[in-house]
Amino acid sequence: MTRDAIAELKLILAILFAAAVVAQTVILPWMAGDIVAHFPEVQSLRQPILVLSVLAVACIEAALLCLWRLLTLAGLKRTSGRPFLRCLDALVVSLLAGAVLMGSMLAVITEADQGTGGPIPPLALLTGIGGCTVAALVALLKRRQLTVAAERETRRA
């Protein structure tokens, strides 16, 4: 991977991270207040959903930081060592934690089905759960490929 490609990918990651921080600090609290203003019957769900949402976004931010580190290691041509594998492990854990938190939000929303929001929130959460799970599986497969390749190299030597 060229230095320019790594720099461009890091720029995209930085923009995504900044957007996630804005979502955590501004958009999610504003949306929670707006929904309660329009649907007072869901007042009791405001705090749990807000906390779960902020934590889920934090997991995605952690995944973005892991990707940043993986790009840095790839730029240094150090894709077969322990630091690279640890970053892949951290990426998988953060993505799966995000999926679990989104599943918790889905459970809270469906448990208290107040008829607000229609099918969009559950579908969005299911999409997020699926996306996080698939990304974690891809990272696990990449980790397995790297460990098998490292084992082959040690047998050759």
Task: Explain what this protein looks like in three dimensions.
- With 157 residues, this protein is an all-alpha fold.
- The chain is built from four helices and no strands.
- The protein has helices spanning 3-38, 46-75, 82-111, 120-156.
- The longest helix has 37 residues, at 120-156.
- The mean pLDDT is 91.
Annotation keywords:
single chain; 157 residues; mainly alpha
Radius of gyration: 19 Å
Total strands: the figure is 0
Strand residue content = under 5%
Span of the ends, CA to CA: 27 Å
Number of helices: 4
Mean pLDDT: 91
Range of helix content? over 70%
Q: Structural class of the helix and strand makeup?
A: mainly alpha
Low-confidence stretches: none
Can you summarize the main beta sheet?
none
* Principal-axis shape: elongated
Strand/helix succession = HHHH
Summed up, what is this model?
The chain has 157 residues and is mainly alpha-helical.
SSE blueprint and pairings:
Layout: H1 3-38, H2 46-75, H3 82-111, H4 120-156
Helix pairs in contact: 1-2, 2-3, 3-4
